[in-house]
Specification:
Strand order of the largest sheet: 1-5-6-13-12-11-7-10
Helix content: 40-55%
Number of helices: 18
Length: 535
């Protein structure tokens, strides 16, 4: 009777997670370096927090829910305390500042890049692990800190090669919305959850449009699959009071049937697609405020508008837009969002604007949970993966050129020969040249050259017994050899071409390899220049 063979373990990637290639990693690092340079120029310093935090330190500020364990990945420590993978970089920073409040110099200006985790249903473009790059100013109470964040976001977009007019930093103030919600009867702690439902509905404006938001503010909305999302349960009168503020000065807002509230047609500058003047927009918001909270928010927006305008950041870069909400509950004042304005085709084949690649705002109450004292703070977060996708669309995603290593081949496997090949490799590395000695089955030399070809190696160094006796090596130009094999049709052309293999004294390896790599680099630069001219 045959024994049951053990089943082979199936290699499978968890849903919502991705493996990253060398090209993606290098492109990400190049992008992060450009962002980091802007943050450093503004006087921010790096700080790093761990991936895990105690769940109660994350508190109720979890993505799209107020249930402490929902939306995050959690484990129980050996002392029965629950820990969770961080879902953003702001809550861990608040814990870090609170824990070190007596040693930290305020204002504390810091930045950090890192992976965050969401225990949510994955989908197209929606992952459970993704990278964020944050900058925060803690201990800065004035709105000048918020204005600076908006300007830094604009400078970051341009440092990444996103041209002016292809992005905008939209800015609002949650106090404006809080004031309106109080005016329609949603003030007080007893309405906190309902206010959060309203904010989540407003945050879906770009996704569902004004009519979809109206449904989410009312009884609810049924999507294409038939799934029903329960709404905030506002009356038509409450919705009609809220919608004009949500839409701000974008467009005229449709009224519910029978509504008697006045609606002005909002005027856009048709030449630029932007509002002609942030300051005028905010002055109008101040004039039309119906209570102190709404007025305070409008006045803070007015101050931000004047600050950024004085620094030369007009509405084509930073734009007051009262539809900006930001979903998380911890925002207490100005909120802002970096939005890309160019068109892309989504997974459904529809042409849409690319949309948000980052945002943030003021969170004056987050650190107080730990310290019991007011510690004002503001900051923003860039979604690194989403921004990478945008840069790919703009053909702006460029990593520093990384040339594959020079391959030192192995002709003989005795210890003395291996030591000689290893020294060649180390000499190249000591000279700053990427190099590796072949580590596979050296007895089949053809496999070594196949490996070099698949690896993209630019050069192969070959020394057999004859070369060793003569004190020489052969250097094979694998890039030129491949080109010659495909292009050269006669012996005259072959003789006039750069030789694809040369014999040199062993002592000249480093100098010759450096020269041949430089020649290949010139060829690539010439080809890139020709390709650019052709475009």
């Amino acid at each position: 009777m045959a024994k049951n063979k053990p089943s082979k373990l199936k290699a499978r990637l968890p849903r919502g997670f991705v493996d990253r290639s060398a090209a993606d990693i290098r492109a990400t690092e190049a992008m992060l370096a450009k962002i980091r340079e802007v943050y450093e120029r503004y006087g921010f310093d790096p700080v790093e927090t761990p991936a895990f935090e105690y769940t109660d330190c994350l508190g109720k500020f979890l993505p799209d829910t107020d249930r402490p364990n929902a939306g995050v990945f959690s484990v129980q420590d050996d002392d029965e305390q629950w820990m969770s993978l961080r879902y953003d970089l702001t809550a861990p920073l608040a814990r870090h500042v609170a824990e070190n409040i007596n040693e930290i110099q305020l204002p504390f200006r810091s930045y950090r890049a890192g992976w965050v985790f969401r225990n949510e249903k994955p989908g197209p473009g929606r992952f459970r692990q993704f990278m964020q790059f944050d900058a925060d100013s803690v201990g800065a109470p004035g709105v000048q800190a918020d204005a600076e964040m908006c300007m830094m976001m604009a400078d970051t977009m341009e440092a990444l090669g996103i041209p002016r007019g292809s992005y905008v930093i939209r800015v609002n103030n949650r106090k404006v919305l809080d004031g309106v919600m109080e005016a329609i009867g949603l003030g007080g702690e007893e309405n906190a959850e309902r206010r959060l439902t309203v904010l989540r509905a407003i945050d879906k404006l770009d996704k569902f449009g004004i009519e979809g938001v109206r449904l989410l503010l009312g009884e609810g909305r049924k999507d294409e699959s038939g799934d029903f999302t329960k709404g905030a349960g506002l009356s038509n009168e409450q919705i009609d009071r809220l919608l004009p503020v949500i839409m701000g000065f974008r467009v005229a807002v449709p009224k519910a049937e029978g509504s008697e509230l006045p609606f002005d047609d909002m005027i856009l500058n048709e030449d630029t697609g932007n509002f002609s003047d942030n300051v005028a927009t905010c002055e109008r918001l101040v004039a039309e405020a119906t209570n102190d909270i709404e007025r305070e928010g409008a006045e803070e927006l007015l101050a931000i508008s004047r600050l950024v305008s004085a620094a030369g950041y007009g509405t084509k870069r930073i734009l007051v837009d009262t539809s900006v909400v930001r979903g998380l509950e911890y925002y207490t004042g100005p909120v802002y969002e970096a939005e890309l304005l160019f068109d892309v085709t989504n997974e459904k084949g529809e042409v849409v604007q690319f949309g948000s690649v980052g945002g943030g705002g003021r969170y004056d109450g987050l650190i107080k949970r730990f310290t019991g004292r007011d510690v004002p703070a503001t900051g923003f977060s860039i979604g690194v993966s989403r921004l990478m996708t945008a840069l790919k669309n703009l053909k702006k995603l460029q990593a520093d050129e990384v040339v594959a290593p020079v391959l030192v081949t192995v002709m003989d496997g005795d210890t003395a020969s291996l030591a000689r090949y290893q020294k060649m490799t180390q000499d190249l590395r000591a000279a700053g040249i990427r190099a590796e000695m072949y580590q596979g089955n050296w007895k089949k030399f053809g496999n070594q050259l196949k490996y070099a070809d698949r690896r993209g190696c630019p050069l192969a160094i070959i020394q057999g017994g004859d070369e060793r006796a003569e004190g020489t090596v052969q250097i094979k130009d694998l890039i030129e050899g491949a080109r010659l094999a495909g292009e050269i049709e006669d012996n005259v052309t072959w003789r006039e071409s750069r030789p694809a293999q040369v014999s040199i004294p062993e002592a000249d390896i480093v100098a010759t390899v450096r020269r041949m790599l430089a020649e290949q680099a010139e060829d690539r630069a010439r080809q890139n220049g020709d390709a650019g001219a052709a475009q």
